[in-house]
């Protein structure tokens, strides 16, 4: 059986993150793997900041939305005892930033949430699908059931 050594947990700060976080934590414990965490900032405007910019978590900013995102990442990271050196907040396009970071950090398993959308939403694409097709390592898409 493959023994994962570096697991990348991706979070989007949705109400469904807890399930994805639980799966990542359990797998990291099961494989005695190092857990990393990433949130890609694609939903807030970042003026004069090119894609791929790593946002320092230890520096304060006057930008309130950015500080809120940083605080969310730090909170989850602290709950999972993820070292500050394995926490990333990156401004960019999720699929690209996730797969690039996975290569840079020698990740062997990426964990993403998947909403399992149907119909028109599938045509628009999803981060989980894009990561699955572009990652150079294994990807676990945690199925998140949407209420009917």
Tell me what the structure shows.
- The chain contains 5 helices and 6 strands; from the N terminus they run E-H-E-E-H-E-H-E-H-H-E.
- With 148 residues, it is of the alpha/beta class.
- The protein has one domain: HUPs (Rossmann fold, 3-Layer(aba) Sandwich), CATH 3.40.50.
- A 6-stranded mixed β-sheet has the order 3-4-2-1-5-6, sandwiched between helices.
- Strand 1 (6-10), helix 1 and strand 2 (34-41) form a beta-alpha-beta unit.
- Helix 3 (94-104) packs parallel to helix 5.
- The chain is globular.
- The N and C termini lie far apart (37 Å).
Termini gap? 37 Å
Based on CA inertia axes, which overall geometry fits? globular
Low-confidence stretches: 117-125
**What would CATH call the class?**
Alpha Beta
What is the mean predicted local confidence, pLDDT? Answer: 85
Taking strands numbered 1, 2, ... along the chain, how are they ordered across the largest sheet?
3-4-2-1-5-6
Strand content: 15-25%
| CATH-scheme architecture | 3-Layer(aba) Sandwich
Structural key phrases:
148 residues, 22% strand, 6 strands, single chain, alpha/beta, Rossmann fold, six-stranded mixed β-sheet
């Amino acid at each position: 059986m493959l023994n994962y050594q570096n697991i990348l947990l991706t979070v989007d700060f949705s109400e469904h993150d807890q399930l994805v976080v639980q799966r990542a934590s359990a797998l990291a414990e099961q494989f005695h793997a190092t857990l990393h965490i990433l949130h890609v900032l694609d939903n807030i405007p970042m003026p004069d900041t090119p894609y791929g910019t790593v946002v320092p978590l230890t520096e304060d900013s006057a930008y309130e939305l950015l500080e809120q995102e940083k605080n969310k990442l730090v909170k989850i990271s602290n709950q999972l005892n993820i070292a500050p050196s394995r926490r990333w907040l990156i401004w960019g396009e999720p699929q690209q930033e996730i797969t690039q970071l996975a290569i840079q950090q020698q990740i062997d398993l990426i964990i993403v949430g998947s909403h399992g959308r149907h119909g028109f939403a599938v045509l628009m694409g999803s981060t989980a699908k894009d990561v699955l097709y572009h990652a150079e390592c294994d990807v676990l898409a945690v199925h998140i059931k949407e209420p009917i």
